[in-house]
């Protein structure tokens, strides 16, 4: 190691891991005072040695960020004719051509919004069952837009809601991706009671003599076992079948087949052994009203795997909102995380699911990013993979904006998101050599907790296969020369990931690492070039 770089830095008594520390947390007190001869060493010699290290010190890093002035909560992304579109809650929608500079084309819940042609017609069909939300306005939430090849239409699946369990998933169709969408019908209802079940399609689907009591606790809806019907995501499986995954908190995340010729669900036969309900479909993960919502599922043909992304926590700035990932060989599960566990309704869910990102700050960012979540995934026409989500900021308000990060798969087939918003970078295989990795890095571990904690990076040196923090050997790294895969080992956990050069949000050229451990933690690394 280059010991001269570290002379004058106090050694710490505690063993140092690379878990993030909360904002404002102070370091442990120094355990030793540098020897007099070390203090007297030439400052010029130290400066010369300092310059030899690849990667900038924090004092040399330009800070910056960008602000869009566009807010689209729960963004669902589609691509059409070279343009990207995101659709979100509250009838917000935006478009761009670079996945960065979004421009709004629809905003606000009401008749004047051009997104729908008839949603607010006089009969207000979509709101008859739910009425207004508890805050006094109409809730139009979390749409998902897909092109239905059989119908030859763009189809929007969305929800209306009254409270945390009383909701409906609907669909609407359009000839153009931007709309206007013509409201078609309600699909599935939740939150019904003995007195309100007749206002739903329950008897139409289940039969006139069907008994709703298994869905109730007393006379009220059993929302700990059965879903809140919001947050739909519709996709094609590898065989061309159309499916819808949905749910939020309450009874967890569920799956239904969609009949492509009509846009309506195909309700299955009951199968208690597999968790299949004839009205709601197949139960996948979560339940017991734990924080798990905003499901997004997609199939990757190269990995031959279905990926299920969800959000944990509460969506407010300090609610611990974050993105988690599970995967399965089939769309109906079993969905497992990197530790080999699924998410049952009885689990402590903070330890379940790969945490792709939570609250974080990096040396070049002016402010921390907080509560990233309710994501979608773009498998672009140029064969790239992107994570699209909304994020709040450490600015004392609930203001939020969409962000897009490029993703790739690590050595074990787990998707990892690069640390910064996409800026046209190329993830290139076979482009790195051992000398490219040696130098000063900033490592950030997202952990697995669900809290308002902001994870901060730790400066380290990578050299000759070893990783050092504050002059202590704390880990190691391995790399196959000429590849873009790297593994960082900390506390006997291997974080397997990918490397990519890109520009950060301040315009700095950076070399990035993004990896996943078998402990479900994501590790990011940044070298400022």
Account of the 3D structure:
- With 529 residues, the protein is mainly beta.
- It has 5 helices and 32 strands.
- 5% of the residues lie in helices and 38% in strands.
- The protein has an 8-stranded antiparallel beta barrel with strand order 25-26-27-28-29-30-31-32. Strands 11, 12, 13, 14, 15 and 16 form a 6-stranded antiparallel beta sheet that branches.
Radius of gyration (CA) equals: 25 Å
Measured by DSSP, the beta-strand proportion falls in: 35-45%
| Structural class assignment | mainly beta
Low-confidence stretches: 1-50
Strand line-up across the major sheet: 25-26-27-28-29-30-31-32
How would a textbook summarize the main sheet?
8 strands, antiparallel, barrel
- Summarize the amount of helix as a percent range: under 10%
Give the secondary structure arrangement, pairings included.
Blueprint: H1 3-6, H2 36-39, H3 43-52, E1 76-80, E2 83-88, E3 92-96, E4 103-106, E5 139-148, E6 153-161, E7 167-174, E8 182-190, H4 202-206, E9 216-217, E10 220-221, E11 233-236, E12 242-246, E13 253-258, E14 265-266, E15 276-277, E16 281-285, E17 293-300, E18 305-312, E19 322-328, E20 354-357, E21 369-379, E22 385-393, E23 400-409, E24 415-417, H5 434-437, E25 439-445, E26 458-463, E27 466-469, E28 472-479, E29 485-490, E30 493-503, E31 509-516, E32 522-528
